[in-house]
């Protein structure tokens, strides 16, 4: 792959016109509206602390298609930041399915699912996912976050207990808090510690829910789903897994961590996403028919959110067809991941395992430690032609800031090699290597 040009000539004239128009609108807004009122001065003060720490950021704008190489803020960069694991965001079959669904069903559903917004295509998608995951039923939510938060908060109450891995996703934490259940946190992937807690509360009334990520989004390590499922069975608990980053990545044809560990029938609640490897938008919950019917009645994000546009549902159906019929995509993903990790380690980067969990998936963190240095590294990488996002506190613990990289099936070997060259050269310039 040749050098990635990053000058203004990469922008089309229409994009330049749009940017100019946007800047003019922003200027007009500043002229016509006063600065932050004193009632919100505490927000300005907090933002100032972010700036002082070097962790303040602005959103980057994607100007073309989400791919291994794309244009952000007018600069053509290799993209190691997206969750588009299998390159399905712009797959022709998904595009065709979306266009046909718009022609057949329009652009919106017009209501929440429980009133008038359940279309036949929504049910087809849920049936498709349930069959794929080898469960009785499935319900689709508007996002993976709402699927987690809505499920945990609705199936438990204040008399119950939640045993949660300390590095579980924020959506799990929020759902646990909303449920008002008693929250017990076990050390990361520490099954013995989880069992200690179960023993301590064995005689307490109420249900016990064990919950873990299938793949942890910041470190890329795999949760001990099989062992935790065995614990849940031993102590009569409910087992739940969030497979957002395992969907389309682990298991046969991307069936997730339950399939990866072969614990079908032993995980009561499986949460997945349609927003990452599937290439579209949304989240889903799989389990028994009674679980799904209950969520229809009590999961607030489901009850009070308009259902997906039919084009999104059709896109997701097409994506699951591709998972079944194109397993080579997942193999390419893992081949690229193995090569990238090997080369990073050879170059001397800390990619986990030293005071942090070791990555086992296409999510590969490059541990820097200090927040400002991490953000400076990320900015320098972008200037050099590489999109690799800096992650700092509070998303990760203080002292464990990192560049989080994500490999996809669609990166070419030339693109991976150029990424490695940019990472190494920039790291040496900044005295990181």
Q: Secondary-structure map with pairings?
A:
Blueprint: H1 13-32, H2 41-53, E1 69-72, E2 75-79, H3 92-105, H4 120-133, E3 137-141, H5 144-155, E4 161-165, H6 170-179, E5 182-186, H7 191-200, E6 208-213, H8 225-235, E7 238-242, H9 257-260, E8 269-273, E9 283-287, H10 289-298, H11 300-303, H12 310-325, H13 328-347, E10 363-369, H14 371-383, E11 386-387, E12 389-391, E13 401-406, H15 413-429
Parallel strand pairs: 2-11, 4-5, 4-6, 6-7, 7-8
Antiparallel strand pairs: 1-2, 3-9, 8-9, 10-13, 12-13
Helix pairs in contact: 3-12, 4-12, 5-6, 7-8, 13-15
How would you explain this protein's 3D organization?
The chain contains 15 helices and 13 strands. About 2% of the residues have low confidence. The protein has 433 residues and is an alpha/beta fold. It folds into two domains: 132 residues, Aspartate Aminotransferase, domain 1 (Alpha-Beta Complex), CATH 3.90.1150; 236 residues, Aspartate Aminotransferase, domain 2, CATH 3.40.640. Helix 4 runs parallel beside helix 12, helix 5 runs parallel beside helix 6 and helix 13 runs parallel beside helix 15. The chain starts with 12 loop residues before the first helix and ends with a helix. Helix 8 links the parallel strand 6 and strand 7. It has a seven-stranded mixed beta sheet with strand order 3-9-8-7-6-4-5, sandwiched between helices. Strands 1-2-11 form a three-stranded mixed beta sheet. A three-stranded antiparallel beta sheet has the order 10-13-12, covered by helices on one side. The chain is 43% helix and 15% strand. It is an enzyme of class 2 (transferase). Homodimer. Belongs to the class-II pyridoxal-phosphate-dependent aminotransferase family. BioF subfamily.
């Amino acid at each position: 792959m040749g050098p990635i040009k990053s000058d203004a000539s990469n922008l089309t004239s229409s994009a330049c016109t749009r940017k100019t128009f946007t800047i003019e609108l922003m200027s007009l807004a500043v002229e016509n509206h006063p600065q932050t009122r004193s009632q919100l001065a505490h927000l300005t003060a907090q933002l100032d602390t972010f700036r002082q720490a070097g962790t303040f950021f602005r959103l980057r704008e994607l100007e073309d298609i989400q791919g291994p190489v794309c244009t952000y803020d007018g600069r053509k960069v290799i993209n190691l930041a997206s969750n588009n694991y299998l390159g399905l965001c712009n797959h022709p079959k998904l595009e065709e399915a979306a266009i046909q669904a718009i022609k057949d069903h329009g652009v919106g559903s017009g209501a929440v699912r429980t009133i008038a917004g359940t279309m036949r295509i929504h049910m087809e998608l849920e049936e498709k996912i349930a069959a794929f995951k080898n469960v009785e039923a499935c319900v689709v939510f508007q996002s993976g976050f709402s699927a987690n938060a809505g499920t945990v908060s609705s199936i438990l109450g204040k008399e119950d207990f939640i045993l949660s891995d300390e590095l579980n996703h924020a959506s799990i934490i929020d759902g646990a808090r909303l449920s008002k259940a008693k929250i017990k946190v076990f050390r990361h992937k520490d099954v013995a510690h989880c069992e200690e807690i179960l023993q301590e509360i064995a005689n307490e009334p109420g249900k016990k829910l064990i919950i873990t990520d299938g793949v942890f989004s910041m470190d890329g390590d795999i949760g001990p789903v099989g062992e935790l499922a065995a614990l849940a069975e031993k102590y009569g608990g409910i087992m739940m897994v969030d497979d957002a980053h395992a969907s389309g990545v682990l298991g046969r044809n991307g069936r997730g961590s339950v399939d990866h560990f072969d614990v079908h029938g032993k995980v009561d609640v499986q949460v997945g996403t349609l927003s990452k490897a599937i290439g579209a938008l949304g989240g889903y919950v799989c389990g028994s028919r009674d679980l799904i019917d209950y969520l229809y009645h009590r999961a607030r994000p489901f009850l009070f959110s308009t259902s997906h546009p039919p084009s999104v549902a059709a896109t997701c159906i097409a994506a699951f067809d591709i998972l079944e019929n194109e397993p080579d995509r997942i193999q390419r993903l893992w081949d690229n991941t193995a090569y990238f990790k090997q080369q990073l380690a050879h170059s001397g980067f800390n990619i986990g395992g030293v005071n942090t969990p070791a990555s086992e998936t296409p999510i590969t963190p490059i541990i820097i430690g200090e927040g400002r240095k991490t953000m400076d590294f990320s900015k320098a990488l972008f200037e050099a032609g590489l999109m690799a996002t800096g992650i700092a506190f509070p998303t990760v613990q203080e002292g464990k800031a990192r560049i989080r990289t994500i490999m996809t099936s669609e990166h070419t070997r030339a693109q991976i090699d150029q990424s490695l060259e940019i990472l190494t050269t920039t790291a040496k310039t900044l005295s990181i290597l």
